Amino acid sequence: MDKELMIPTEISIKDKKKIIKGNILRAALFARSKVVEVMTEEHDKYYLVYYKNSFIYGDKLTKPTEDTFIDKAFREGIILKAPNPMLPTFIPNLNVSIPSKNKLFTELQQHFSLQEVAYIATILDSFFEKNQLIEMIDKIYYHQRRSGKFMKSFQVIRILRDFAPSLKSAKERLESHEYFSYHDFYNTSSLSEILKKDPLYVELHCFQNRLNPKEQQFLEQIFTQQDCNVEVLLLWLERVEKLQRAETLEKSTALALRFLTLEQWMLVLSEANINPFKELPEAKQLIEKMVAKGNTEKAALYLFTFLDDLPHSYETILTNIWGNSDPKFVFTHLDDFLTLLKHLPDDKKTIQMEQKMSQLAVLLLEEHDLQTVRNKLIPVNETIPHLKVFEKINKMAGLEEDPERMMELGDYYAEYQQFDKAIDCFFWEMELQPQNPIPVLRISKMYQQKGMVKEASVYQKIAAQLKDNQQVG
Predict the structure, then answer these.
(1) Which helix (H) or strand (E) holds 35?
(2) Residue 385: its pLDDT value, please?
(3) Burial track 48-58 (b if 16+ CB lie within 10 A, e otherwise)
(4) Taking burial as the number of CB atoms within 10 A of a residue's CB, which of 36, 307, 334, 433 is the most buried?
(5) Looking at beta carbons, which pairs linking 187-190 to residues 24 or more positions away fall under 8 Å?
(6) Does the predicted model carry a pTM greater than 0.85?
């Protein structure tokens, strides 16, 4: 789908009393966490981390360090690249204030369980020293253990082991005799049973194995129960991309239309290489309304990506788009229109063709030299042969090489409103025939067309003098 239809997602970041504006470049979903990459107006990159739809922390980074959580999220998570109409709904808060580092973990404990705080520490390794985070998780572990909460301490030490696999003390504690029964529970119990005691583990496990049917279905159920509609759609879109099958489109469409317009959902499907004009019956009605309201160019942008895969019922729409598109728009999207023309009935291709192509030639000649314009029009002529405009441009390219025919070339330039180029041709002819009033009159007329009355009058007088000289002679 054409990027002209996409709107950037803006975000506001308060960092040390300074308000920073930026656009989201991409975002990543990783189980309960989300990472957002932002390009600011000053061309700095900020990375923001969310957990369970709460903004946790962020900072300016040149790029994420390899093997940090942010790096992992953008490698192994589900990515939303900007621009994308799902981003404003996917990002829970588009006005964030970066909290104080010193108070962060104290404040986190007021909103999340200690197990969650330990996990959140692991997703902040782009902003904190790893040893500092290990120390924080260790404190939580010993607190849980001293309180006699052995299951919870087991859950925390496993988070630490996964975060720092080379940490010998974490591995030894995890393998201690007192945790054998918990290992057995996780190894032998169903996901449903584990979910009751450790939902964080289940979500992480299912997300990391989300392309397996069992884990995918379980994770989708979890997201659905939490009303995480965007996350459910992202799972579906990733599955479509990986498996190249758009199953359950009707169900996904019903879900998407809870928070997206039909136009936005069409854009999302297009980004996933799903043709909405074949899959969504209501898409045709939407495009027809656009054309009827005069939004021809917008309708064209929606259709361009799928011109070679549109149902035959779109033929009338394509004809209307061709007939009503502004020449400047045709010029900007010339390749797309060449493809569009191939899908029009033969009797429709020539309707207004010469007029539109002449207007297009004017625009092309303003931007390019004759040979370039000729080359750009060759595909048009191949699609619709015997166009007079192509024959004229082709002839003009030949005249350009013949200094004795500059007058003729100038007349062609004048026909296509290239008055300066026409003046150059007539000047050349005037130098070759200094006593001939005709090229001088042509120059006067060109200046009139340009609105340069004074110059036109000067050359009008010169032409009159030349005529008088001819009569005297």
Answers:
(1) strand 33-40
(2) 79
(3) bbbbbeebbbb
(4) 36
(5) none
(6) no
- What sign has the CA pseudo-torsion 18, 24, 29, 32? positive
Please provide residue 37's backbone torsions phi and psi, each rounded to the nearest 5 degrees: -105, 125
Read off the pLDDT of residues 372-421 as tens digits, 9 standing for 90 and up.
Answer: 999 888 888 887 778 889 899 999 999 998 888 999 999 999 999 999 99
Which one has a higher pLDDT value, 473 or 250? Answer: 250
Give CA separation, 154 vs 89, 178, 268, in Å: 36, 9, 42
pLDDT in tens, 13-59: 999 889 999 999 999 999 999 999 999 999 999 999 999 999 999 99
The answer to whether the beta carbons of residues 79 and 27 sit under 8 Å apart is: yes
Distance, C-alpha 216 to centroid of its chain: 27
Angle at 114 between CA 110 and CA 120, to 5 degrees: 90
240: CB partners within 8 A, 6+ apart? 246, 247, 272, 274
Residues, the chain, total? 473
- The terminus-to-terminus CA distance of the chain in angstroms comes to 70
150 C-beta neighbours (distance < 10 Å), count:
14
Contact 329, 300 (CB under 8 A): yes
The DSSP bridge partners found for residue 39 are 23, 45
Mean of pLDDT over the chain: 92
Backbone angles phi, psi at 28, to 5 degrees: -130, 140
Instruction: For 302-369, give the secondary structure using H, E and C.
Output: HHHCCHHHCCHHHHHHHHHHHHHCCHHHHHHCHHHHHHHHHCCCHHHHCCCHHHHHHHHHHHHHHHCC
Within 13 Å and on the Cβ side, how many CA atoms surround 429? Answer: 24
**Phi/psi of residue 305, nearest 5 degrees:** -60, -30
Alpha helices (H) in 68-129, listed in sequence order: 69-76, 87-90, 101-108, 114-122
Sequence-separated (6 or more) residues with CB below 8 Å from residue 52: 32, 112, 116
Over residues 94-115, the pLDDT tens digits come to 999 999 999 999 999 999 999 9
